[in-house]
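quick q for whoever's on today - can somebody do inverse folding on this one?? i tried earlier but teh output was garbage lol. tokens:
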């Protein structure tokens, strides 16, 4: 889950001080990216060289936004390893190692456990539960979770049990015709939800102000907000303009090769606030 503490609505930790640092965990692009898991998209050639160039630029943008980037151990034989969001959920004060919903990705979680454990107390989703981080979206003290092909009811129950002790409410939402919840919508603090209304019932998110992705850009709702900057895929300029018209500051990032692998901006990192080491 590419999340950070948004309780103040600006991407900074509630009560945050200079002792906290924003960290993004990323992983190098696998040599096997073209063998990635696909659910809704046809398989097309991926330019591995361009993918690595785009990933390097994404990392540079994070650093320009004063995020400290930490690379997870490379997994060159794991096709989807660059999509680190699905392997954990990071919340203020804890991290949850997930259990991805496709067998090919289960080995990815072992390499992330030790790294996250250096920053947060760890919990984990156990068999028979499955949970992909891309199906988890936090808005303040509410955690929205989608039951999907990758996330099952047992995984959601385990997540609810873990976070209840930390004061979070879990709400289950329904997605259709897309891979993950954050394929359908993302939260832009303090009160915006950018969404493909054909894939999600936006009424499930209460009083958030909904900005619809342009109808010609169904994947345009996947965004990442850090501080006062919202990153958007360069593939979706019409949706970006809608965000700008709403007063949201945006920056384009090229991720075309990852979109061929059914990935989005949120997939490429795990972002959280942790105490300075």
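ok took a stab at it. sequence:
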């Amino acid at each position: 889950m590419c999340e950070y503490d948004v309780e103040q609505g600006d991407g900074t930790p509630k009560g945050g001080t200079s002792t906290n640092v924003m960290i993004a965990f990323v992983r190098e692009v696998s040599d096997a990216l073209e063998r990635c898991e696909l659910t809704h998209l046809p398989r097309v050639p991926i330019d591995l060289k361009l993918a690595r160039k785009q990933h390097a630029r994404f990392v540079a943008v994070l650093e320009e936004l004063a995020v400290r980037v930490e690379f997870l151990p490379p997994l060159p034989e794991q096709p989807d390893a660059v999509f680190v969001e699905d392997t954990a959920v990071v919340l203020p004060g804890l991290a949850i190692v997930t259990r991805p919903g496709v067998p090919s990705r289960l080995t990815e979680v072992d390499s992330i456990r030790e790294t996250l454990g250096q920053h947060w107390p760890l919990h984990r989703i156990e068999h028979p539960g499955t949970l992909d981080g891309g199906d988890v979206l936090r808005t303040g003290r509410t955690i929205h979770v989608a039951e999907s092909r990758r996330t099952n009811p047992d995984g959601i129950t385990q997540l609810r049990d873990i976070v209840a002790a930390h004061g979070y409410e879990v709400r289950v939402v329904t997605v259709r015709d897309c891979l993950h919840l954050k394929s359908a919508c993302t939260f832009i603090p303090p009160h915006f939800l950018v969404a493909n209304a054909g894939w999600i019932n936006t009424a499930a998110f209460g009083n958030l102000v909904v900005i619809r992705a342009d109808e010609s850009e169904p994947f345009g709702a996947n965004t990442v907000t850090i501080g006062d900057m919202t990153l958007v895929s360069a593939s979706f300029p019409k949706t970006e303009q809608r965000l700008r018209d709403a007063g949201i500051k945006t920056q384009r990032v090229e991720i075309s090769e990852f979109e061929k692998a059914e990935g989005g901006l949120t997939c490429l990192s795990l972002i959280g606030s942790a105490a300075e080491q």
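fwiw The chain is about 20% helix and 25% strand. also Residues 1-18 have pLDDT under 50 and may be disordered. so keep that in mind when u check it
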